[in-house]
Amino acid sequence: MAIFKQVESGINPYAEDYMATKIAYILRPEAILSNYWGGYGFVKGTLQEVTEQFYIVRNLYHKSNYIPLRHFVLSFDPYYEYDITSFQAYQIAKKVCKIFADAQYQVIFSVHENTNHLHVHILVNTIDLTNGMLYNCDMHNFYAVRDHVKFVLQSYRLWYGNHPLLLHKQPFL
Are 114 and 31 within 8 A, CB to CB? Predict the structure, then answer.
């Protein structure tokens, strides 16, 4: 069973250091033990270099008064997906994140191995790289992403007919 959800943190999304804090959280070395992380719309580098690239897009389009990131988690239940490796979770994350990249959004993800279950954190910059338009975070788009996640999981045989993909969508601020 896999769980895909959008999460909100207790951090003020309008704070100047919000993006830096969120990116630093998902790239914590103690969480990504195999160093499986990546994304689209930026050049992979140090934590500071990656973070700066996200801020460049925000500042280029003067979007400092908007929620800059959406945070999703894809979690694998060890009792069902006992044979999922960190590398497979990384491959799944790359395919899941492609939907955001195709829509011209920066997206960064990391595979966390520091708990009893593998899980992937996904951060999506809410500002379109090409025109500065904001990501529409409504339920319709969430369900489109959910369907894409379901499709990717099916290709890894992690979706079995009526086997549930648990989904959770928290209300927006």
Answer: yes
